[in-house]
Design a protein that fits this description.
394 residues, Growth Hormone, Chain: A, 15 helices, 80% helix, globular
Length: 394
Amino acid sequence: MPRRVLVIALLMAFGMWLPLTVVPVVADIIEQQYSIPHTLTGLLFSAPVAMLSLTAIPGGFLADKIGIKKAVGIGIVILASGSALRGLSSNFPTLLVFTLIYGLGLGLCFPNLPKLARHCTPRERSNITVGMFTSAILISGALSLAIIRPVIYPITHSYQGVFFISSIPAILVALLWWTFIHDPPCESAGIQAVNFGLNSFRKIIINSGLWLVSALFFTHNVVLYTILGWMPSFLVNIGARVTIAGLITSIIFLVGTVSVLSLTRLSTKLGRRKPFLWGTSILLIAASLGPLIINLPTSWILMSVIGLAAATRFTMILTLPVEMVSPEHSGSASGLVMSAGYLGALAGPIIGGLILDSTKSYQWIFITLAVVSAITTGIAFVIPETGAKRSTSH
């Protein structure tokens, strides 16, 4: 992949997810200001993901039809606009509407990062490039959890100011994308618009392997987004200060950043994807039950396990669909998996909020996540191998 394209794509991965990761950090401020229950806070965190789920298939299909530069370029402008407008919200309904606009842009951009990786790198190394994108996303989460409350919020004194500042990277990336990315972005790979019609899309829809990956991604996101949405408040509940809770939760992203870079290379070296799926799924069963027994001083161990397992599994899942189909169809394949999979990200935090509102306890949230993680493990065992040694895995 050309260095210019890689750098801008990494900045885009960072900038497109930063506006979402700040929501749990200021959730208590929004709840107090608008007197809303936990369930609505969960909806605010899930709303962009709902839009991603609705628009991922059109976003991937659009890139396969008109080319990746135009599709992603339109998406990043919408994303940056919606994110910045959140800084002008004066009530919860307007905040939710602007958040949905941000989510629309996210749905047009994000499904096409794996497509970019598939086209601009050799097939057997595409997961390494996707791993680099994942690291950029994780860094955005780590920074938001670590510095928003202790540094940014004291400067702005409002959640609106926090949201506006978090939109600045996306605005800059939109300018960089339209200025410096060519069409196609990678000449040697030949990324361009193709004659991709309904017959081609039908082949994507009936691909059973893609639906298995979609189911895996759904359960993965139920677990991950529930943890990210409610872990800071859980840590406060067991005695952490708000700023410390954010720092502890940021360990998930920091450990994930390091582990995903090393484990994706190991996956490429071994020519395997499946062991990294079911192995991390087993780890997350134990991690889901961890909050039932940990105390505050040992919580960093739990965050480290979650970070290693979730980031590695996330990267492998994003890699699978673009390895299952031909490169010119990879946008639609990725869009299908994200559209189905991110319904789990929508459901998880809302269900967590409902459980918390009804039981007044975090215990049943984590027990539910352990059950979902067990289901994820079963799915991981039956997914087809797509690594370089796939021919020997049957």
